[in-house]
C-alpha cells in the first residue's frame, strides 16, 4: 500500500534555509542554521535512509539535526522518529495529544485503520511538549506551533517567516486535515469533540498568513511540478502560492460538512391528525 511513497526523491532547496529531503510520497523538511538544523517529519522507518542520503547530498549532516518535529503522529510521518532520534540525539518535539500517540506506536487513533500492523510503528517519547503558539527557535529560525486537530488529536501545523532576496515569506508546514475513511464525526468515543475540533481548526488556518504552503505529502502541494519549475530557474519562486492553504481548507471543510450531513439523524416528518 505504501511502497510507492517510499521511493527516493532528489533533495532541493525550497526557499531560504528550507529544504525538501523526503521520499517521493512522504515529505521531510530540513531547516538549516549555523547552530544546527530542524527536521519536520521522518516518514516511515524505511525512509530514514532516504532522508540521511538527501541531507548528505545537500552538503549537511544528520548529526547536526538538533530538533525533530512532526506534522502528525501517523506511521507515514513519524514511523522513522525513533530511528532518527537514535541517529541524531535530537530533541523530539510534539504536541501533548500526538506525543501520546507516538509513545503508543500508533495505537488508539481517532478512527479505524486498515490494520493495526500496517499503521503501527516503533514507539518514541517526546522530549518537549508544545502548546498553542509555542516557539521552537534555533540559529535565528523561529517555528511557531499551531495546534490543528482533526486528522489526529494533536496534529500540528508549523509556521515561520523566511527572508530571501529582500523579501519576507510566511512559510506554513501544514499538518493534514483529511478525514480517514470510516472515521465518525458524531458520537466518536475516541474523539467526542471531533466536529468542534475540525471547525476550530478551519477557522485558525483560514486566518494564518501563508505565502508558501508545504504539506506532509508532495501531492498536496504540487511538489513535483513546482520543483521542476524551480530547477529550470523560473521566477518568481514557483512555491509561492498564497491561495493554496485557503483552497485546501475549503475543500476539506466541504468534505467534512458533507460527511456530517450523512451522519445527522434523518428528520421524520411530523404527522398531523385529520
Name some characteristics of this structure:
274 residues; alpha/beta; Metallo-beta-lactamase, Chain A; 7-stranded mixed beta sheet; 5-stranded mixed beta sheet; 8 helices; 12 strands; globular
Please explain how this structure is put together:
The mean pLDDT is 94. Helix 6 (194-206) packs antiparallel against helix 8. Strands 1-2-3-4-5-6-7 form a seven-stranded mixed sheet. It has helices spanning 48-57, 75-78, 81-88, 96-104, 116-119, 194-206, 223-231, 244-263; strands spanning 12-15, 18-20, 29-33, 36-40, 65-69, 91-95, 128-130, 135-138, 141-147, 156-164, 167-173, 212-214. 28% of the residues lie in helices and 22% in strands. It has eight helices and twelve strands.
Instruction: Sketch the major β-sheet.
Output: 7 strands, mixed
What name does the CATH topology carry? Metallo-beta-lactamase, Chain A
Share in β-strands: 15-25%
> What portion of residues is helical?
25-40%
Kindly provide the radius of gyration, computed on alpha-carbon positions and rounded to a whole number of angstroms. 19 Å
The CATH class is Alpha Beta
Element-by-element helix/strand order: EEEEHEHHEHHEEEEEHEHH
Q: Please provide the count of β strands.
A: 12
For the largest sheet, list the strands in their spatial order. 1-2-3-4-5-6-7
CATH architecture tag:
4-Layer Sandwich
- Average pLDDT works out at 94
Distance between the termini: 60 Å
**What would you call the structural class?**
alpha/beta
CATH superfamily: Ribonuclease Z/Hydroxyacylglutathione hydrolase-like
Low-confidence stretches: none
Structurally, the number of domains stands at 1
Structural shape: globular
Put simply, the count of helices is 8
Amino acid at each position: 500500500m505504501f511502497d510507492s511513497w517510499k521511493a527516493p526523491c532528489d533533495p532541493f532547496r525550497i526557499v531560504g534555509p528550507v529544504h525538501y529531503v523526503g521520499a517521493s510520497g512522504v515529505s521531510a523538511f530540513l531547516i538549516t542554521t549555523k547552530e544546527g538544523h530542524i527536521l519536520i517529519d521522518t516518514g516511515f522507518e524505511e525512509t530514514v535512509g532516504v532522508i540521511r542520503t538527501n541531507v548528505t547530498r545537500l552538503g549537511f549532516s544528520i548529526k547536526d539535526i538538533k530538533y525533530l518535529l512532526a506534522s502528525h503522529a501517523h506511521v507515514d510521518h513519524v514511523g522513522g522518529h525513533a530511528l532518527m532520534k537514535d541517529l541524531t540525539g535530537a530533541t523530539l518535539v510534539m504536541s501533548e495529544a500526538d506525543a501520546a500517540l507516538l509513545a503508543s506506536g500508533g495505537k488508539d487513533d481517532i478512527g479505524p485503520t486498515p490494520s493495526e500492523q500496517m499503521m503501527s510503528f516503533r514507539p518514541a517519547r517526546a522530549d518537549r511538549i508544545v502548546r498553542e503558539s509555542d516557539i521552537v527557535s534555533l540559529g535565528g529560525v523561529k517555528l511557531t506551533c499551531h495546534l490543528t486537530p482533526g486528522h489526529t488529536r494533536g496534529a500540528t501545523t508549523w509556521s515561520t517567516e523566511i527572508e530571501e532576496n529582500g523579501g519576507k515569506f510566511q512559510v506554513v508546514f501544514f499538518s493534514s486535515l483529511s478525514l480517514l475513511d470510516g472515521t465518525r464525526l458524531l458520537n466518536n468515543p475516541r474523539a467526542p469533540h471531533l466536529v468542534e475540533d475540525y471547525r476550530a481548526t478551519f477557522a485558525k488556518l483560514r486566518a494564518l498568513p501563508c505565502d508558501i504552503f508545504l504539506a506532509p505529502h508532495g501531492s498536496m502541494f504540487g511538489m513535483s511540478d513546482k520543483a521542476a519549475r524551480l530547477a529550470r530557474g523560473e521566477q518568481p519562486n514557483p512555491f509561492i502560492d498564497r491561495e493554496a492553504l485557503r483552497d485546501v481548507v475549503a475543500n476539506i471543510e466541504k468534505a467534512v460538512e458533507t460527511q456530517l450531513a450523512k451522519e445527522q439523524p434523518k428528520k421524520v416528518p411530523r404527522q398531523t391528525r385529520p
